[in-house]
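Quality-control log, excerpt.
Job 1 of 2 completed; input and output follow.
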Amino acid sequence: MKKGTKHSEETKLKFSLARKGNKNCVGRVLNESTKEKIRQANLGANNHNFGNKMSVEQRKKISVAHKKKVKNGTHHLWKGGVSKINDIIRQSVEYKLWRESVFARDDYTCVWCGIRSKKGTGRIYIEADHIKPFSLYPELRFAIDNGRTLCAPCHRTTDSFGKNL
């Protein structure tokens, strides 16, 4: 069939009849045993990936096995420990507590332009900025007095934003 051609009413009726009933893509009617096999496969009787949810114990076992593979360096997603230490630090609990402390101290308000963001509303995006750069002063990374609250546009104008160092 050519793209964009119009089908006759007779052809449309044939398409409609072919789709009706319980037929697979080649037009054969499935018998009851085949339907039951498909149903069981979809429920997960033969394959744990479909339908059945794994128990908490099973998920924990898989998690432990994956962690062991990562530790040994044999997991299929392991890339030899290429995570940057700064990324790991920025995902830590200490860093998140530092951010929240800076926001609370500055009352969720940009210290340069005064735009305010109410906690949890997400209307104005504010960011916690290190006054002395994160990468150059590791001893000041979690010092609250080394942080300030800035809105995203003001943060971009700082000397230490991104690769401006």
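Job 2 of 2 completed; input and output follow.
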Amino acid sequence: MPQLLGSLSFQAPYYIGGLLAYLLGSIPFGLILTRLAGLGDIRAIGSGNIGATNVLRTGHKGLAALTLLLDFGKGLGAVLLAASFGPDMAIFAGFGVVLGHMFPIWLGFKGGKGVATAGGVLLGLSWPIGLAAAGVWFLVAIVTRYSSLAAIAACIAAPSAALLILHRYDMARVVGYLVLLVLLRHHANIRRLIRGEESKIKLSSKP
């Protein structure tokens, strides 16, 4: 694979690909699924987030799992489809789909934190990096039951895997920028973790 974005001339197809990926990322599966299930607006409960962790707070584990799968799938799908036009297009699509999930035009640019979608993007860009990040997320989530802490750990693991496993400095740079978006969306969670006020993952809606 050539050096990623090393000699990219920013031409219209890249912007079009990124925009299409953004629109895909803007589909709020968590909100759609909970409304179809008659649970109302997911943004009115828990953290107000549209992602799988907040859907889990409704007590519907199946809906949460489906939300996770769909959010992950739109990240993976965007990258795999764009990759047929080259690695640089795949990167544009990866950033576009994550930004779409975080700032969906349909919801006044107030979306999710992009963890599952970014996970799909990482797997699409490089399966070793994606698996490493996912493994760290699951391990930290199981041990601590903090979804946000697991996300932060996975964000650290992803560029580290690019360097330590693949020895790809160009990939580590791209992945680093991507996970930085996710980390920035967790600024409130980080403050709550420091204060010891962060909510843990619950498998039901009961306290």
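Post-run check on job 2. The radius of gyration is 17 Å.
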